[in-house]
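Why does residue order matter? Because the sequence determines the fold. Keep that principle in mind as you read this record.
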Amino acid sequence: MDRNKLIMASLHDEQCDLVLKNAKVVNVFTGEIVDGDIAVSGGMIVGVGEYNSRNEVDIGGKYVAPGFINAHVHIESSMASPEVYSMEELRQGTTTIITDPHEIANVGGMTAISDILSAAERAAGNYYVMLPSCVPATPFEHSGAELSAKQLAYFRNDPHVIGLGEMMNVVGVLSGDREIMDKLDAFSGMVIDGHFPLGSGKELSAYISAGINTDHESITYEEAVEKMRAGLSVLVREGSASRNLDEIMTGIIENGNDTSSLAFCTDDKHLSDIRRHGTIRYNIKRSVELGLDPVKAIQIGTINAARIYGLRHIGAIACSYRADMVVLEDLKSFKVLDVYKDGKSIKSIPEPVPMKYSRALLNPINFAPLGDDAFKIPVKDKYSVIGIVDGQIITKKLEYTHEQLEAGLKDGSINKIAVVERHNATGFHAAGYIKGYGSIHGAIASTVAHDSHNIVVVGDNDSDMLKACEELRRIGGGYVIVSDGKTLGSLSLPLAGLVSLKSADDLIRELDEVIAAAKSLGVSEGIDPFITLSFMALPVIPEIRITDCGVFDVTKFCFV
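Structure:
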């Protein structure tokens, strides 16, 4: 940063590289809309007022807001490479993303993190990383890697690293587990993300006392406001499977709560959904539709997130802030007319060229042979069944007698679900039952299964489920749909079994096709066939899940 150049540009019009004329500037500090010109020099904003330059763009009275900030996202869930994802976010007005690469780290460990940090250098937008704290998430599953406090600390001083990612091991925190304490100590003084679904009371207080700063797992307004009262910054999530914004923001608006400790995030969102609706742009627009003041909604999507994560010079249109701006048609539709990154229109930014990723991360599908009876479940008097909750990633633990289970399997309301370890051919695999996914005929399988990313497969018959697993091996990981022994659709994700290396257009087209194929099998309305399925293997979100080791009761933290 050339301070003298910035000072001279603030004082003298001719020193400016760019002036956006006749703008309605959204001031996130005062909550006002201010008419004026925006002067830029060296990628920084040097003034708002009356400026002229040889390079002027007349905004024509349109609104200019700070570039949006996605406060918590797992890029791998979009299935796009970081370079492609960053460009897609930019087009939607998001100039800064704060990502936790724990998905790919669970597959590739330190190699994966190194590659992600290299990709951050090539990203078109601001790309910040929260180092994954829980690899694996729990000791009740097998992932492709384990990351210790010492290994994570190795990356602490990278310029893209701003803290420690979501601390999912709540039990480890509350019990003072030595390894968990070492990780928290290693990142003392930096932001530490939380992950405490349904956290409340003294346990929530104890969790925060460990040094946790944020949480993105609130489902209801009551949960969110309790966490806010306790001092947490609440990241309001709206993704493809977890849609919590309406519930939380409606309560915030009706009760008139202060919003300074709120930020917006997506957590997990498919690229096709991003293309259709946007990310933080959608969260802002939807909050305004619910009754929130537009400027306040923009504050939540910009300066709030910057302050929570200690990102100085980002999140506002003011002197000494980076010239990251989004030009909006109005503050109702929030239609994006143009986006400026460091004072340059993204229309002039070339399409990203994918980097070469480490060979160890390519096609990592390695599971032991599965016999015909691999998914056979012994007959019992009672069964614990995973119950899907519409629009959420929490589940309900449902109890069925043998007769009730047989009836559910017969009418299609219950399916079989299985998880297969796919990193080191350990032979671990387990099967159980799930309700609410849909009355499907065949099998749907994926190597995207949070957070250890083993194979997860659901179906109404073992033969198609086994066939789907073998098809995943053949394509190097991804999504597969099988019915009556035939593959109806597939999407290859060769990078760690999580990410495509194709362009956004090609990925979106293939994703839409494979989702349509899955829907044709009978997946319930309102269920994302793959993102919903991916969360069924995450043993840190209540109430019941399945890992490669068995069906797991999250509330009791034990296998059933």
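The longest strand covers residues 18-27.
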